[in-house]
Amino acid sequence: MPVLLSADHPQPLPVSLAAVRGDAELLLQLCGQQPCDWSILLVDDPLMARLNEQYRAKKGPTNVLAFSLREGEAYSDDAPLGDVVISLDTTAREAQREGISLRRRLQILLAHGLLHLLGHDHERSEAEAERMETAERQLLNRLDDKQRRTSMINLAINVDHIATLRQARGINEPDPVLAAGICELAGAAGIVVHLREDRRHIQDRDVYLLRQTVKTKLNLEMGAAPEIINIALDVKPDMVTLVPEKRQELTTEGGLNVSGQKKKLATVIDRFIGAGIPVSLFIDPDFKQVKAAKDIGATFVEIHTGRYCDAVNETERAKEFNLVAAAADEAHAMGLRVNAGHGLNYLTTAPVAALKSIEELSIGHAIMARAIFVGLDQAVREMLAQVAGRR
Ligand code: PXP
């Protein structure tokens, strides 16, 4: 195991260690290094301040310290490289200041620490500092090239709101089946509908018709109630997304408590997988729920983006964004396929769409709200531009 990554931090870490280890291994490889021991320790500010004082006689924490084991005497190519210590607290502050994810800031510090271990230094002379800066930029560019998405993230559109409007009048328009066709023609990669037990918006007729008309992918969102499970098994959508469902809620409020009902959900998953229907579990960005979803055989998880979208200030938003990114990375590293959604709009979608572990976003309300003013085709195309990172 060339990269030995460990964390000594009192709080749960808002980053996937599996993803960070993968980044470090790739950086090592991109530096042309033979597999060799590289130890990385993630700590908090108080511990970093103690190390900074002990080894550099400097007060207060810093972001990264590097201790090379290859200085001085001759060493072989597979000799241990050394240690890099990173303060997660300082990294999180820097990430927020720069408007980037915690994982991205860690990548920058890992690249910086690694170059120190390989002999670079920015304190000896200006020329060396410039050389190190160039090497760091090139290394990060090569990392980005390797990790670049090969395909665009999919946009799946939830058309429940069209049915809500129809049900308000109790007549037959507007029709969510027609809306689904317009969304597909505008470029949506999938259609999502939630057949609720109280049938407040989508009706059984919609689901059966959509099964016949949707040409991309039909994702049936549902609570794990026996009646709805039977309908889903009969309709055979391309996938189902299991969500918690409460009668009084306006929309799905939180993620599934997978870890608290593993046995029940595992039985439901087995029935769908047995019928050839992949199952996604809608979960909060929480490692415990990610692990439970993996344990019981889910194919996908859909990471709940609601708290990120509802954040009332930038600090809160950055914190919630890191939780979404970390949960997506962790799920991806475990071999789960990863979707995300809830509450995403024309301002909050682009950063989530840039996360490489996520393959599909599920968006409804924001698109339908805009469609009232600019038309559905235009609203979908504008959201696709956000998803593609073009504003
Ligand atoms: N994902 C899930 C699991 C949902 O329940 C919903 C809401 O129906 C969405 C995504 C879409 O959320 P919004 O309508 O806020 O875009």
Explain what the structure shows.
With 391 residues, this protein is α/β, with parallel strands linked by helices. The protein folds into two domains: 143 residues, 3-Layer(aba) Sandwich (Collagenase (Catalytic Domain)), CATH 3.40.390.30; 234 residues, Aldolase class I (TIM Barrel), CATH 3.20.20. It is built from 16 helices and twelve strands. The longest helix has 22 residues. The radius of gyration is 24 Å and the shape is elongated.
Summarize this entry quickly.
This protein has helices spanning 17-30, 45-56, 88-98, 102-117, 126-147, 160-169, 176-186, 204-213, 226-235, 262-274, 287-295, 306-310, 314-333, 349-353, 365-374, 376-387, and strands spanning 3-8, 38-43, 64-68, 82-87, 154-158, 190-194, 218-222, 239-242, 279-283, 300-304, 337-341, 360-363. With 391 residues, the protein is an alpha/beta fold.
Features:
16 helices; single chain; TIM Barrel; Collagenase (Catalytic Domain); 4-stranded mixed β-sheet; binds pyridoxine-5'-phosphate; 391 residues; alpha/beta
What is the CA-based Rg, rounded?
Answer: 24 Å
Q: What share of residues is helical?
A: 40-55%
Give the integer mean of the pLDDT values.
Answer: 94
Decide which structural class fits the backbone: alpha/beta
CATH topology of the largest domain: TIM Barrel
Layout of strands and helices, then pairs:
Elements: E1 3-8, H1 17-30, E2 38-43, H2 45-56, E3 64-68, E4 82-87, H3 88-98, H4 102-117, H5 126-147, E5 154-158, H6 160-169, H7 176-186, E6 190-194, H8 204-213, E7 218-222, H9 226-235, E8 239-242, H10 262-274, E9 279-283, H11 287-295, E10 300-304, H12 306-310, H13 314-333, E11 337-341, H14 349-353, E12 360-363, H15 365-374, H16 376-387
Helix pairs in contact: 1-4, 1-5, 3-4, 4-5, 7-8, 7-16, 11-13, 15-16
Bound molecules: pyridoxine-5'-phosphate.
